[in-house]
Amino acid sequence: MPGVATEACSVKRIVLGLTLALALLGLSRPASAQVQGVDEFGAYGPSNRGRTESPQVGALELRFGPYLPRVDSSVTGTPFKDTFGTSTRYMLGLEGDWQLVRFPHLGTLGPGLGWGYTRATGRARLTSDLNKLSDEKTSLTVMPFYLVAVLRADVFARELNVPFVPYAKLGLGYALWWSSDGGTIAHAGDVSAKGISYGPQYALGGMFLLDFLDQQTARDADNSLGINNSYVFGEWYGSELDGFGSKSRLNVGANTWVLGLAIEF
Q: Which of 10, 100, 122, 183 could bond 110 through an S-S bridge, CB–CB 3.0 to 4.6 Å?
């Protein structure tokens, strides 16, 4: 019945919420120290015996970090610096990975697909006097996508109880970009200030396994949500989005770093 099902679902959520709250407050003991009780219905209480981890097929990352497009490296002069200055801009991104293959005593390998968004704004210089700024706002928006192979060496966490997972990525990036003046696409004569850029992308990073801090909460997340592991991570990456050295492609790639949160499921 719908009413009964809804009530049961609500009770399940309340029980799960209380369990997670107790774990976060440190009221739950490590699995090795937890003892089962026995009543007229049999054994009760947490037990790690016979527990199996849910299947692990992929990962999801939320990424954030500074981003300075290398526009000035692909054109004459320094138009990006002159227009937008040297202030730090940031990029927000998402990445999803499919852990296609698992190598024993090493880790996983599979494809990863990512997306990002960043925007720089400033005041354009007057064409009649380059030493003066106009009152009109101008912007450059960059939206990169990428497809990479991701190798995660989780052997340290799985077999050595060291909560650290190094990883490497290699693949191709593809970015949409456009420049706007006063809310409309800028033009230079008949040419619109928009385009696409592409090229190689690579990264090295490390992840800290948060499950190590509270193993009972990690088990609850796996049992109820199918989340195998959760991490914080740091990554350095480079993208050469200049059409593989083409003089006709604006380089909107960057060499930078990101911080983020990740889950495996």
A: 100
Tell me the pTM.
0.76
Q: How many CB atoms lie within 10 A of CB 56?
A: 17
Same domain, 4 and 105: no
CATH no. for residue 196?
Answer: 2.40.160.20
- Please report which residue ranges of the chain form alpha helices under DSSP H: 2-24, 79-84, 155-159, 215-225
What is the C-alpha to C-alpha distance for residues 13 and 226, in angstroms, rounded to an integer?
15
Are the C-beta atoms of 228 and 199 separated by less than 8 Å?
no
State how many domains the chain has: 2
| Number of other CB atoms surrounding residue 216 within 10 Å | 22
Burial 97-134 (b: 16+ CB within 10 A, else e): bebeeeeeeebbebebebebebebebebbeeeeeeeee
Q: What one-character DSSP code corresponds to residue 70?
A: -
23 pLDDT exceeds 70? no
Q: What percent of the chain has pLDDT over 70?
A: 73
Cα angle 98-164-23, degrees, rounded to a multiple of 5:
90
6, 134: one domain:
no
CA distances from 74 to 20, 80, 92 (A): 52, 11, 24
Q: What is the pLDDT of residue 127?
A: 55
Same domain, 3 and 104: no
Residue given tokens 């989780």 in the structure block: 154
**DSSP 3-state of 214:** coil
Residue 21 domain boundaries = 1-29
